Amino acid sequence: MTDRSTHGAQAPSHAAPDPNAADGSIFDGLLGGDSSQWAFGTDFEDPLAGVDTTVPDGVDAHDLAVYCLMLADDALVASQRLSEWCSRAPDLEEDIALANVALDLLGQARLLLARAAAADASVVPVLPEGSPVPPEDALAFFREAGDFRNVRLAEVPNGDFAHTVVRLLLLSCARLAVMERLAGSRDTVLAAVAAKAVKELAYHRDYAGRWFLTLAQGTDESRRRLLSALDALWPLQGELFGSHAVERAVADAGVGVDPAQVAAAADVVLDQVLAMSGVERPARAPLAGVSGRTGRDGLHTEALGLMLAEMQVVARAHPSGRW
Amino acid sequence: MTVPTGTTVPTGTTRAPTRRDRAYDVARRVADPEMPMLTLEDLGVLRGVEVDGAGVVVAITPTYSGCPAMATMRDDLVHRLRDAGFDDVRVRVELEPAWSSDWITDRGRRSLAEHGISPPGPAGPGGPVALRLLPTRRDLRCPRCGSAATEVTSEFGATACKALYRCSHCLEPFEHVKEI
Q: pLDDT under 50 in chain A at which residues?
């Protein structure tokens, strides 16, 4: 993957539109024939172009790849759910805020999917020969629900705004604690991705924490909705700190983080929010897995398959498409 | 050879500019696609220019993980360097160290303010990230009227790197580049 982008000169991805072409329009002339202004946001770009992706000594490359998928899928699935708020949020500022959070998480997911593919190409779905779809996109758009490694908390439907606030708070408390420690990873790519993610997640956690407090101390109705959302989502919270065999293996190898080791640190922050908001920590039991399998093993709720169907349908209809 | 960002062609010397100097001089003038009043150098995302045989390798770093402008920055760099006669241009991503708003140059900060965008204050210290449940207090002024009476509307704005503010004096909304 890296070869394609780092060796040989790179050309702008699209030719400038020609106002005199048969299907051209007068607006095409505004670009002045400068093709570099035409590719905005439409180009596939290797997010790890030129980055050294050598797997560190003593690390199982497959374990590293699967671990990257876990971190990537939490972000990708949460990002897709947040994006569903676009044009539907309670007001314009929240619409923009949720889209920004979604964009940060999508960026983290892209880097982590690319890192997974570079560590072990066997995790990438095989596409028709000659397909231009890069590995990160093959991973995002051509895996079945059972191959996704995200926690189930990330995938359940949005519910109302209170549900989205509670979910974002629980996810960002856990992810920030993991990323703070992951910034010390022996894998230089993961360490760099984590160091950047910490800065972004700090804003996400503050945003969710402030809304949690606002809803809890707002009107009777806002508090009722918040408590209802917390009660509904709490059984999925424990999965964030479950410790999967792959997570333990990469933690032992010095490249990953066992989330059980950061549970206490994340809890301290969550308790701060609960205390400020005057909300009790729920007593509900965790949602069981099936034969011990949960989201990290590819065991999901029905909601993930439906969400992926919508997210993946266009890419799957054009496995050799160039975007 | 790699030269840290901010290094420019030495002035006042008689040395003729090298090929690398010329390439750097072209790259540092490329504008940021989302905040075109800033060059990539002013924004602090241009991390190095190396001359590699016949080619030029430019290193850039994203401001935020999901920065959608990376492809455009790459295309613009390739385009400008080609126009300047460098045929073999490659752009690589440098993830480490992570971009900080502290890297925006003084000239960049002035340019932001002149264009109605409030420049960032100092980024916080490293170490454990504290939870902030109250609105972030920033020492900033309305870029239009200079009043210090401002209020934050949202920590998230039209691009990943900006927050939304409103001036309580002139009542105009404005954007503020966030500290990270």
A: 1-9, 12-13, 35-44
Tell me the DSSP string of B39-105: BHHHHT-EEEEEEETTEEEEEE--SSTT-TTHHHHHHHHHHHHHHTT--SEEEEE--SSPP-GGGS-
With an 8 Å Cβ cutoff, is B92 touching chain A? Answer: yes
Best CATH choice for the domain B19-99 from the list 3.30.300.130, 2.40.10.340, 1.10.150.120, 3.40.50.2300: 3.30.300.130
DSSP state of B174: E
Tell me if B72 and A111 make a contact (CB, 8 A cut-off). Answer: no
pTM given for the model = 0.88
ipTM field: 0.86
A61-283+295-317 falls under which CATH superfamily? Ferritin, core subunit, four-helix bundle (1.20.1260.10)
d(CA A10, CA A12): 7
Instruction: Tell me which H or E stretch contains B175.
Output: strand B173-177
Separation in Å, CA of A239 to nearest CA in chain B: 23
Please say whether the dihedral angle defined by the alpha carbons of residues A254, A257, A261 and A264, taken in this order, is positive or negative: positive
pLDDT of residue B11: 57
